[in-house]
């Protein structure tokens, strides 16, 4: 990989991606420039071999791939700043900014620019993100490149852009939903006799094991549940009690409401 990459707005997502790309040998630190208004925050990354800058326009002009990772409220200012440096024949633009459509980026940078939208979640920090990507004009080659790029920090699914709000609810908000389920399980553990730290450790590892069973076996949750439930057993009794109290339906309703809320936020931001 010899393309020069500019990460505009090097916060948590931008930094995590930069580290992932280097760790996976997708590229070298020397090929990546990190930008931020205050360079003090980026000094440790300069020492690690990354280029750093507070000049977005010059950084974009020297790059082949431009990753927009600023806050939504900063985006229009940044797009105005870099628009004259964008060359549609050279640049691929990737936006990881929540709620901003490909069309909104092209409105500022020009309709000929290839734009790919990517939505990672907070597990990008440990290389375990579920990232959804979408585009309305990118080539198959660029889609493949961006897929490979985000696979350095987790798993990737390509979706239609109109499903990005739904992906926000399932993957981005979903982190919080599963964390709350783990928290509840640990509280149940305390109630049945374990110390809080023990209960949390047990709940976390059990949840991780459950997820890995599905990932490694490629099975459906119900087939794994069947292996744990025996006639008149304690597992089915617990499951049925949870279902009587709305366990599955409340999770489904929560995801639907989060998707609705995300859709309204998108409308306000665009």
TrEMBL record:
Domain Pyrroline-5-carboxylate reductase dimerisation: 161-262
Residues reported in the UniProt entry to bind NADP(+): 69-72
Cellular compartments annotated: Cytoplasm
Keywords: Amino-acid biosynthesis, Cytoplasm, NADP, Oxidoreductase, Proline biosynthesis
Top EC class, one word: oxidoreductase
GO biological process, one term: L-proline biosynthetic process
Catalytic activities: L-proline + NADP(+) = (S)-1-pyrroline-5-carboxylate + NADPH + 2 H(+); L-proline + NAD(+) = (S)-1-pyrroline-5-carboxylate + NADH + 2 H(+)
UniProt key word Cytoplasm: yes
Major location (coarse): cytoplasm
SUPFAM superfamilies given in the database record: 6-phosphogluconate dehydrogenase C-terminal domain-like, NAD(P)-binding Rossmann-fold domains
InterPro entries: 6-PGluconate_DH-like_C_sf, NAD(P)-bd_dom_sf, P5C_Rdtase_cat_N, P5CR_dimer, Pyrroline-COOH_reductase
GO MF annotations, alphabetized: pyrroline-5-carboxylate reductase activity
Chain ranges of the Pyrroline-5-carboxylate reductase catalytic N-terminal domain: 4-98
Pathway(s) this gene product operates in, as recorded in its UniProt entry: Amino-acid biosynthesis; L-proline biosynthesis; L-proline from L-glutamate 5-semialdehyde: step 1/1
GO cellular component annotations of the record: cytoplasm
Role according to the record: Catalyzes the reduction of 1-pyrroline-5-carboxylate (PCA) to L-proline.
Family indicated by similarity: Belongs to the pyrroline-5-carboxylate reductase family.
Protein name in UniProt: Pyrroline-5-carboxylate reductase
Organism in which the protein naturally occurs: Pedobacter cryotolerans
